[in-house]
Amino acid sequence: MAVYKWNRYNLVTSESSREVKCSNSEFYGEVIPGWQTYYYSNTGKPYISGKYYQATFVESGVGQGQMPSVAGKYISKSGQNVRQIYYGKSGATIYGAQYNFPLSGDFTEYTLAETKGSLSGNVYSASSGTYPSNGISGDYWYEALGAISTGTALTVPKIAMEGKSLPVGWASINGATAYVLERRADSGSWVQVYSGAGTSFEDTAGAWNTVQYRVRASFSGTNGDYTASAEIPVVSASALVISGTDGDLGELSADVAYTCSSSGDGAIAVTESVNGVYERTFTAVNGAANKISVLDLPAGSGTIHLTASTNPGSGVVTVTREWNYTKTAPAFADSGAVARLEKDGKNLWPMTIPEAVRAPRLFGGDLGKALEKLAPFVPGGAVLETGAYTGTGTYGSSAKNKLVFRNRIALVFIVRASYPHGLLLPFAAGNTQTAAYIGESGGDPTVFYEVNGNEVSWYANGQALNQLNASGATYLYAALTIPGGEA
């Protein structure tokens, strides 16, 4: 159903005037003839209140054949609360009731009109003719804005599990005062499950095969059209399910979305890998949407592998999902080229994005040069593992610091978060010592370390600051590690 919208304005009363002549020798003068009853006042011009001139006119009912002078007087056709009055000038007269043209002479005609004032609000209707397109109806001036879009996108999960929460959301629409949400399970009838001003509803999946939702917006009682979601598969209560089925996703143009659902309340651990290379491990929210960014996927043909594990109370359960995909690399015009934007001899924009990311001078000064230094480790499928720790204030060979990673260590970097010079030269597998750029201590102390598979430990002498272990200080670390390598 189409919904039409108007701006509704308050009315403003305005006054206009014109000079007119009235002739008793013509049946039609500039003033409409046929005034059978008239009033006139000696007390001055009536005042305006709202839409009307308001006054008590003190004389009326001139007898037949009489021609009293009305010069300097205000005359009304029908008494109090009128929209039009006349002011008689020198020589102006008014005839008696026996004539059809009672006014004679020169007059000033004053007329009240209603015009558009301040905006009162908006109104809606299912018909384009309910109110004027630009004009007055009742006590308001209306301005037509035409039909409006009433559709709103629904957000629903890819899959639902019997007995589990099923969140439904929709985008708000400007001007909508309420929304109605309906549900259809399997091939049944639509049933209203929500009505109100909110934009979300949490349902509970029943013993269905599929479920579908639709929503419509209401505009002060005028209802828009329904917008329906796709059908949502509903699976039986199960220990663990990853949405979708194994197979080919085809050519990708958007992110790959999926959900992990479990009948239990235990944490769901999910691991993503692409083309056999580990990408990330995280804890998924039961039934919530997850996604793999299409920008992060390699171009060409590839394979996405998901592994999810949880303990619903009866032991660890693990399920997998595997999708093949293709992705076309973006093409650029042959005439295009990378360039540096400069002004007054200074760089406004670097030649490449990595150049825009600053890096410590030790690694070349920008991310582009740092990546060049790290390139030898990438062919082996290196991944980045990051984290932070808080210093304890201890130091020396009997109080070593230690970090443990998921995979075999290639390089480890450490920097003090609150002081830019608190930087440790990288730990590299196969070496045993490096230097720390402390700054505050006035020197670059030696740091002794040992890399053993996926573990690294280190110490320095003299003070905790040298060991990057100052009490209460926060240190950030990043490690290049090799998945599949011997830990």
Describe this structure in words.
A hairpin with a 2-residue loop joins strand 30 (341-343) and strand 31 (346-349). The protein is mostly beta strands. Strands 1, 2, 5, 6, 7, 8, 9, 10 and 11 form a 9-stranded antiparallel sheet that branches. Mean pLDDT is 80; it is low at 25-36. The protein contains 1 helix and 39 strands.
Summarize the structure.
With 487 residues, the protein is mostly beta strands. It contains 1 helix and 39 strands.
Low-confidence stretches: 25-36
Mean pLDDT: 80
| Structural category | mainly beta
Strand content: over 45%
Task: Give the overall shape, derived from the CA principal axes.
Answer: elongated
Oligomer: single chain
Q: Report the C-alpha radius of gyration, rounded.
A: 42 Å
How many helical stretches?
Answer: 1
Instruction: Give the CA-CA distance, first to last residue.
Output: 65 Å
Helix content: under 10%
Total beta strand runs: 39
Q: Describe the biggest sheet? A: 9 strands, antiparallel
Notable features of this structure?
487 residues, mainly beta, nine-stranded antiparallel β-sheet, eight-stranded antiparallel β-sheet, 1 helix, 49% strand
Set out the fold topology.
Blueprint: E1 3-22, E2 39-41, E3 47-49, E4 52-54, E5 59-60, E6 74-76, E7 84-88, E8 93-94, E9 103-125, E10 134-137, E11 140-148, E12 154-155, E13 160-161, E14 165-170, E15 178-185, E16 191-196, E17 200-204, E18 210-219, E19 222-223, E20 227-228, E21 232-235, E22 241-242, E23 247-251, E24 256-261, E25 268-274, E26 277-284, E27 289-292, E28 300-310, E29 317-327, E30 341-343, E31 346-349, H1 367-374, E32 383-390, E33 401-404, E34 408-416, E35 423-428, E36 433-437, E37 446-452, E38 455-459, E39 474-482
Parallel strand pairs: 13-21, 23-29
Antiparallel strand pairs: 1-9, 1-11, 2-5, 2-6, 3-4, 6-7, 7-9, 8-9, 10-11, 12-14, 14-17, 15-16, 15-18, 18-19, 18-20, 18-21, 22-24, 24-27, 25-26, 25-28, 28-29, 30-31, 32-39, 33-38, 34-35, 34-39, 35-36, 36-37, 37-38
